[in-house]
């Protein structure tokens, strides 16, 4: 490494000393902590982003400053790879080591070692390029500055600041730039609104969707999503959206609002009341990568009927399967129609058991991965069409390049035989879905538009949608323990292989409850063990969760910290 590069790294890192006595980890979704602790981490992630870009032939890398659904005083940082997906897991240990290096000398040493090991061309012809984005958190501005300082401590690296954006917008922009297509925020809105319009135009004429169903009220979590939806909605026809909790009316980010709150607490968010009984409502999280729907069933309580990620997944799966069936209808003997695209559905252990049953009964292939979209996305990408969702509302649909090519040519072929046939419309719908739904990462705004147009297509109210299947009652608990890494899981987190004996004890508790299912795992974003239980009644699910939480306590010891 050149002398000039070394001294630049030493002098700039001296301005960003790491916080004392805290160990940070890249975790399920990047670094997250109290914003006051993050200057040094974000600066160092800026360095990492520049190195990652150089390693990837100077492709554009994304750096997003957000702590999603965490409280407003927290913040965080995560990296988007050139495909628009999450940072390669192979680089996570380096991210951890960088964040925790105690001094500028240690930091420099780590970088030199890593650059050599990974063969990173520091003196290449093209500079590193990084797209920066942040959510609405007040701490975002100074953290963004720290990221810029990190980036500019790699000679020649260029930072492009996209300002306040949703996490999925930044991922979308990274992907688009690397594909060499238009990649501004306006391009994003135009792609979403035009593919939405295309799907609306292809709705069968007999659809029974009525005017009352036309209204949607969205809880913007007092974050960036509500603000962006206000812009997007002006570009849409055939859908009336009212945004509440857009952050302009004095509400606090994620406080009593947002997708995480609504999904976990199952009560109405601030700004919603008994006056909304029966109306279709949706909730975004703080950086607009999660989406859940809900309705208020009665005037007398604050409880909601939740339509979670599993049910959004089910709606998408029903629609996609229907279009594939139309497309593959018999009666055509041409060679191209023999191709059978592979459709896969990916869930985690948190998926409600009733949703998995429902999807399997539809004849779909359902697979499980550990928690965290990096795992789900990777699995989904193995299919021609992979649909994945976490129960909390993070998910998307990914289409393989080869399937999209086939679909394009199939569409051309069909249009030359009988333009406007049902088969051709199905091809057009699938192509439009691939443009509407964010291919890079789960995106609440694009997911919301897809839900809306599918409901109109099917002629379904939110109640008809909810009734696809009935959720099994479930309960989630958190248990604080001395060392959460003492729990080691296998089989997509459904079995605890360590500490020894705990799984047998969990099995014994589970067996006491009809339709019982329970598992434990260490959280990747909080210092806790998470307990999940479901059973045939709410009382049984609660009792199972409590017994398993007690087991965790017995096996792993309670920490009062
Ligand atoms: C049970 C649950 O909701 N877990 C969430 C949560 O991860 P944990 O590792 O469980 O803390 O945050 C992740 C990042 O947002 C998200 O991917 C995941 O689904
Ligand atoms: Mg989020």
UniProtKB/TrEMBL annotation:
It comes from the Eukaryota. Its cofactor is Mg(2+). One of its GO terms (molecular function) is metal ion binding. InterPro entries: A-D-PHexomutase_a/b/a-I, A-D-PHexomutase_a/b/a-I/II/III, A-D-PHexomutase_C, A-D-PHexomutase_C_sf, AMG1_II, AMG1_III, PAGM. Gene3D superfamilies: Alpha-D-Glucose-1,6-Bisphosphate, subunit A, domain 3, Alpha-D-phosphohexomutase, C-terminal domain. Mg(2+) binds at residues 68, 285, 287, 289. Pfam families: AMG1_II (PF21405), AMG1_III (PF21404), PGM_PMM_I (PF02878), PGM_PMM_IV (PF00408). Binds 1 Mg(2+) ion per subunit. Residues 59-90, 128-178 form the Alpha-D-phosphohexomutase alpha/beta/alpha domain. Its EC number is 5.4.2.3. It catalyses: N-acetyl-alpha-D-glucosamine 1-phosphate = N-acetyl-D-glucosamine 6-phosphate. The active site is at residue 68. Residues 213-292, 308-460 form the Phosphoacetylglucosamine mutase AMG1 domain. Signal peptide: none annotated. Substrate binds at residues 390-392, 521-525, 530. GO terms for biological process: carbohydrate metabolic process; UDP-N-acetylglucosamine biosynthetic process. Residues 479-550 form the Alpha-D-phosphohexomutase C-terminal domain. Belongs to the phosphohexose mutase family. Interconverts GlcNAc-6-P and GlcNAc-1-P. This is Phosphoacetylglucosamine mutase.
């Amino acid at each position: 490494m050149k002398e000039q590069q070394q001294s630049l790294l030493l002098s700039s890192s001296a301005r960003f000393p790491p916080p004392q006595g805290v160990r940070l980890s890249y975790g399920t979704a990047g670094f997250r902590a109290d914003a006051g602790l993050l200057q040094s981490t974000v600066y160092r992630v800026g360095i990492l982003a520049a190195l990652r870009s150089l390693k990837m032939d100077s492709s554009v890398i994304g750096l997003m400053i957000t702590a999603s659904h965490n409280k407003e005083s927290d913040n965080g940082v995560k990296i988007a790879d050139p495909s628009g997906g999450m940072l390669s897991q192979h680089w996570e240990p380096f991210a951890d080591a960088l964040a925790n290096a105690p001094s500028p000398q240690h930091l420099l040493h780590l970088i030199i070692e890593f650059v050599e090991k990974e063969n990173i061309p520091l003196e290449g012809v093209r500079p590193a390029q990084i797209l920066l984005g942040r959510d609405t958190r007040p701490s975002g501005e100074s953290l963004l500055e720290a990221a810029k300082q990190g980036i500019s401590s790699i000679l020649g690296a260029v930072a492009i600041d996209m300002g306040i954006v949703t996490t999925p917008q930044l991922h979308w922009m990274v992907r688009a730039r690397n594909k060499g297509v238009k990649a501004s925020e306006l391009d994003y809105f135009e792609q979403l609104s035009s593919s939405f319009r295309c799907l609306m135009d292809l709705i069968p004429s007999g659809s029974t969707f009525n005017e009352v169903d036309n209204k949607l009220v969205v809880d913007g979590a007092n974050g960036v999503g509500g603000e962006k939806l206000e812009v997007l909605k002006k570009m849409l026809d055939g859908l009336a959206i009212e945004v509440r909790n857009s952050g302009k009316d004095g509400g606090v980010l994620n406080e009593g609002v947002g997708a995480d709150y609504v999904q976990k607490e199952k009560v109405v968010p601030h700004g919603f009341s008994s006056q909304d009984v029966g109306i279709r409502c949706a909730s975004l999280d703080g950086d607009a990568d999660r989406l859940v729907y809900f309705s208020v069933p009665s005037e007398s309580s604050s409880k909601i009927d939740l339509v979670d990620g599993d049910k959004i997944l089910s709606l998408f799966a029903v629609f996609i399967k229907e279009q594939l069936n139309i497309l593959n209808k018999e009666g055509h003997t041409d060679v191209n129609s023999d191709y059978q695209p592979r459709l896969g559905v990916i869930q985690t252990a948190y998926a409600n058991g009733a949703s998995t049953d429902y999807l399997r009964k539809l004849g779909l292939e359902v697979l499980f991965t550990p928690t965290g979209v990096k795992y789900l996305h990777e699995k989904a990408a193995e299919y021609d069409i992979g649909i994945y969702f976490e129960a909390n509302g993070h998910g998307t649909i990914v289409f393989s390049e080869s399937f999209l090519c086939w679909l394009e040519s199939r569409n051309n072929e069909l249009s030359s035989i009988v333009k406007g046939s049902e088969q051709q419309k199905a091809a057009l719908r699938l192509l439009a879905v691939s443009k509407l739904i964010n291919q890079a990462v789960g995106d609440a705004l694009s997911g919301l538009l897809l839900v809306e147009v599918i409901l109109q297509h099917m002629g379904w109210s939110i109640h008809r949608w909810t009734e696809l299947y009935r959720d099994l009652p479930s309960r989630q608990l958190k248990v604080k323990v001395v060392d959460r890494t003492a729990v080691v899981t296998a089989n997509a987190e459904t079995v605890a292989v360590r500490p020894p004996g705990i799984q047998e004890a969990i099995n014994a508790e589970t067996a006491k409850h009809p339709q019982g299912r329970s598992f434990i795992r260490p959280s990747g974003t909080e210092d806790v063990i998470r307990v999940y239980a479901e059973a045939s009644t709410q009382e049984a699910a609660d009792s199972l969760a409590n017994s398993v939480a007690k087991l965790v306590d017995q096996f792993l010891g309670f920490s009062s910290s």
